[in-house]
């Protein structure tokens, strides 16, 4: 499982959702990149739904819906597909980049 983010080949910045130009260097040489894990930085409970800020190494910071029992500081698996299991995962809806473009 993973989440597709946008990677700037000029400065190696990573962004989500996808952008037309890199917000760091203004470069247009962008490509999709797969990120598999992140660390939970903040949690918000909205009834039965848990939303979290998940930091990826080195970036970006993603907002995700959590599944399973998760605490601040936990490493979670990232997915762009809802996971009905009880294992800890962070669901981030896709930003529109087809999986086939992943290299």
Architecture blueprint of SSEs:
Elements: E1 3-8, E2 14-15, E3 30-35, E4 37-46, E5 49-55, E6 61-67, E7 75-79, E8 89-91
Parallel strand pairs: 7-8
Antiparallel strand pairs: 1-2, 1-3, 4-5, 4-7, 5-6, 6-8
Report on the structure:
The protein has 103 residues and is an all-beta fold. It is 0% helix and 45% strand. The chain is built from no helices and 8 strands. Strands 4-5-6-8-7 form a 5-stranded mixed beta barrel. The protein has a 3-stranded antiparallel β-sheet with strand order 2-1-3, with no helix packed on it. The chain starts with a strand and ends in a 12-residue tail after the last strand.
In short:
The protein has no helices and eight strands.
Low-confidence stretches: 97-103
Enumerate the strands of the largest sheet in spatial order, edge to edge or round the barrel.
4-5-6-8-7
> What is the distance, rounded to the nearest whole angstrom, between the alpha carbons of the first and last residues?
15 Å
Tell me the number of strands: 8
Largest sheet: 5 strands, mixed, barrel
Q: What is the N-to-C order of secondary-structure elements (H for helix, E for strand)?
A: EEEEEEEE
Q: Could you say which structural class the secondary elements and strand pairing correspond to?
A: mainly beta
The helicity comes to under 10%
Q: Overall mean pLDDT score?
A: 85
Shape: elongated
Strand residue percentage? 35-45%
